[in-house]
DNA sequence: ACCTGAACACCGTTCAAGT
DNA sequence: ACCTGAACACCGTTCAAGT
């Protein structure tokens, strides 16, 4: 994971990074290849030398997105021994997207676009959800909040609720609303206080 | 509300109905005027005789959407005296969208498209949220689940969570997942059991 | 290998011309 | 009044042709 980007992947990385930011604000349909190319400093046609199609580019974006999310979650649980403390930190990544120019989770936006999503992209988006749910389930069991049998279901409910909070807060461009919603989930008992 | 559609609004109604279905599956960006026109049986250019622009058409769609939602919610609370029973029925409208070819809430989709939404549309989308939150808050107070001071906040949390559940279920085209998520919210204490 | 101009099919929109 | 073909400037995308 550390020594993979030596020389040739540089411009692909630039493309992926720029595409991720655009897709987090405009979705798959709103990912404008001319605008993306301009941001990277090439012509739109040149994009096709790095990725065979918009679908494959978006799949690469979504794949890196869940890989980064998985690494970030592992970093949290590696650094924080207390599982309850880990669960308290979970909403922070969703908050960070809003703090970054009112952006949202790439996977949530693309989930809305389900009907128009190429299969290769759909797969990666689903994996993002799986990664989050698996991590949450593990923390819930470790924290002894639910038994192993109910962990996956509760984890999915937390993921859905936090996603919904991010979406609602984006609609008002109001990050404080996100914080209030998360606090309300805690007060109601969905998330550990 | 009853005697407004006599003769001239007929085709406008057909356009709005078809546009609503398309927007619930593809969003504002994915609302293709040529495809919409074909479904209605006219040419795209003819659409402009009924609505001055795509933005105005989408605003009319979103406006009717929240008006219908408001009427449906009023129908529930008028027919069901018990506020707790009303709250139990609330997720049903979101479920119905999923049951209708895995569609989703128009407002949720458009909220994701926030950055690309004309202001006239944005306003109507926000009103949909307000209508839902106001009704939920009223039911929560009547049911004595929360006090008047916390009603709005709790109502927003419920709306966000239910929206998130719909989005997640759409991503798997799995309506049973929606049911499970709602049940989990109830078990956790976010919604009344 | 990497890049591009030019072309393609498509989009929202306009408008003169039909009924 | 309502509709339309044709055109406009634009878009994402493709490809033959450059270096």
Any descriptors?
homodimer, about 190 residues, mainly alpha, Tetracycline Repressor, domain 2, 9 helices, about 70% helix, about 0% strand, DNA-binding, HTH-type_TetR-like_transc_reg (chains A, B)
Task: Annotate the secondary structure layout.
Two copies of one chain form a homodimer.
Chain A: H1 10-26, H2 33-40, H3 54-79, H4 83-89, H5 92-99, H6 106-112, H7 119-142, H8 148-172, H9 175-188
Chain A binds a DNA duplex (19 and 19 nucleotides) through residues 8, 11, 32-34, 42-50, 53-54.
Q: Can you give a write-up of this model?
A:
The structure is a homodimer of 193-residue chains. Chain A is an all-alpha fold. Chain A has nine helices and no strands. Chain A has helices at residues 10-26, 33-40, 54-79, 83-89, 92-99, 106-112, 119-142, 148-172, 175-188. In chain A, α6 (106-112) packs across α7. Chain A binds chain B through residues 25-27, 29-30, 102, 104, 108-109, 111-116, 125-126, 129, 153-154, 156-157, 159-165, 167-168, 170-173, 177, 180-181, 184-185, 188-190, and chain B through 25-27, 29-30, 102, 104, 108-109, 111-116, 125-126, 129, 153-154, 156-157, 159-165, 167-168, 170-173, 177, 180-181, 184-185, 188-190. The first copy, chain A, binds a DNA duplex (19 and 19 nucleotides) through residues 8, 11, 32-34, 42-50, 53-54.
